[in-house]
Amino acid sequence: MSAGITVLYATVSGKTKQFAQTVRERLLHAGVEAEVHNVARYSAARLRQNDTVLIFATNWGAGAPPPDAVEFCHSLEDPRLKLTHLKFAVFELSSRLKVKVGGCGLRIDAALRARGAKALLAVVTSDRRSYAPFEAWYAEIARALHVGAARRASAANPELESPVARLRK
Ligand SMILES: Cc1cc2nc3c(=O)[nH]c(=O)nc-3n(C[C@H](O)[C@H](O)[C@H](O)COP(=O)(O)O)c2cc1C
């Protein structure tokens, strides 16, 4: 069983990867082990070795998973997979211009619940250019996981304070 937190992302154009990496850096600065993976290279079965997973998913094509996440979503929906020990939270990126019909994040959330995993909080869906929902989500996660020093550490390093700096690069 992995002691740290696994941060996964399902991306089309890279934004969710940047959010995932920001979370990893904040956790590391708070002294919490964390690793980031693209779901394209992370099997759902591997979640059996994890205690906590945070997932950033992008909305794509009216609820379909992005191509990189097809296999991950499919195997997560296998009823034989038991993840009753797992805690998780999902953050979903979408576009205001697109009609949102039950996105990839909602699908992953539903599948994890169906596998018996415990949601730390409900899925948050955010526009890719709005950072307030992310900050609110992260604050809830830090509270739920008792990552108290994360905010203090990030305040000392503006790069970690918000993904805005990273996203503008
Ligand atoms: C080809 C394409 C299709 C998309 N389809 C949807 C959609 O159906 N619903 C939605 O809410 N957002 C949709 N979006 C917006 C993405 O969810 C949004 O841009 C997100 O930030 C992309 O994250 P990523 O860079 O990690 O892939 C789409 C974006 C692209 C490029």
What compounds sit in this structure?
flavin mononucleotide
CATH superfamily: Flavodoxin domain
What class do helices, strands and sheet pairing give?
Answer: alpha/beta
How much of the polypeptide forms β-strand, as a percent range? Answer: 15-25%
Order of helices and strands: EHEEHEHEEHHHH
- CATH-derived architecture: 3-Layer(aba) Sandwich
Question: N-to-C terminal Cα separation, in Å?
Answer: 36 Å
List keywords for this structure.
single chain, about 170 residues, alpha/beta, Rossmann fold, about 40% helix, globular
In short:
The chain has 169 residues and is α/β, with parallel strands linked by helices. The chain contains seven helices and six strands.
Explain this structure to me?
With 169 residues, the protein is an alpha/beta fold. It has one domain (5-164): Rossmann fold (3-Layer(aba) Sandwich), CATH 3.40.50. The chain is 38% helix and 19% strand. The chain has helices at 15-29, 70-76, 104-114, 132-144, 149-156, 158-161, 163-168; strands spanning 5-10, 34-38, 52-58, 87-94, 118-119, 124-127. Strands 1, 2, 3, 4, 5 and 6 form a six-stranded parallel beta sheet that branches. β3 (52-58), α2 (70-76) and β4 form a beta-alpha-beta unit. α1 packs across α5 (149-156). The longest helix is centred in the N-terminal third of the chain and has 15 residues, at 15-29. The termini are far apart. Residues 150-154 have low confidence and may be disordered.
